[in-house]
Structure formats: structure tokens, C-alpha cells
Design brief:
With about 110 residues, the chain is of the alpha+beta class. It is built from two helices and six strands. It is globular and about 40 Å long.
Length: about 110
């Protein structure tokens, strides 16, 4: 059996969750396997910030990578595309207020078989 090793890691914070579709956010938080359905999507046509990177759950935006991490997110995505492999997400911390998700921290590893 091949050994799986980490190639690349990115950790960031997803903010603005409360401003997105509540049904999508609720579906994400109730999905025990939600991390398997998260993706990073650059938004070059975002009217507020053309460098913005959306965090999507099953292709629907649930928030954005915090501005402090956006340049790192772009670099990670470019490197991950070169490296190939599978992106594995882990939500490491979340903030709820009145049972509504406000933000969450995450880590993504690009895994490959060696």
C-alpha cells in the first residue's frame, strides 16, 4: 500500500458567513462530512475586492477567506494546482452566535501518494 504524505498546507479563516444564504450555512453545519464539500474559489469579478477568495460548500458561497490570508490563499491555490493531489479540509474552530455560524477557521492539506 502506498504511503500518503502532506504536500502543501494552508490555514485560514472564513469570515462573513452570517451574510450568506442561511439555508446553505445550516446545511453545511448539519453535515457531519461538510469538510469534504468545501472549496476555495477566487472571485476576480467581486465588486468589493477582485482578490477575494470565496469559501464554498457544495459550490455555494458560505463566506470568504479573511483579507489577512487572501494572498496566501492565492499562492496556495496556484501551488496546489501544480502539485496535484487531493485537498483535504478540516474545520478547526467555529464561532456561533444565537445558533448562527459567524466564522470558522480551517486547514487544507494537499495529499498525494508517494
Amino acid at each position: 500500500m502506498a504511503e500518503v504524505s502532506d504536500v502543501l498546507t494552508f490555514a485560514g479563516t472564513c469570515v462573513g458567513v452570517k451574510h450568506h444564504n442561511r439555508k446553505v450555512v445550516d446545511a453545511m453545519t448539519s453535515d457531519e462530512n461538510h469538510a469534504a464539500h468545501l472549496t476555495l474559489v477566487p472571485e476576480p469579478t467581486n465588486p468589493h475586492d477582485p482578490r477575494a477568495v470565496a469559501v464554498c460548500y457544495k459550490t455555494r458561497p458560505v463566506g470568504h477567506v479573511c483579507a489577512d490570508y487572501v494572498e496566501d490563499a492565492h499562492a496556495f491555490l496556484a501551488e496546489a494546482e501544480k502539485e496535484g493531489g487531493k485537498m483535504v479540509w478540516e474545520v478547526t474552530k467555529a464561532k456561533l452566535s444565537n445558533d448562527v455560524l459567524q466564522w470558522f477557521e480551517f486547514e487544507i492539506k494537499v495529499m498525494h501518494e508517494s
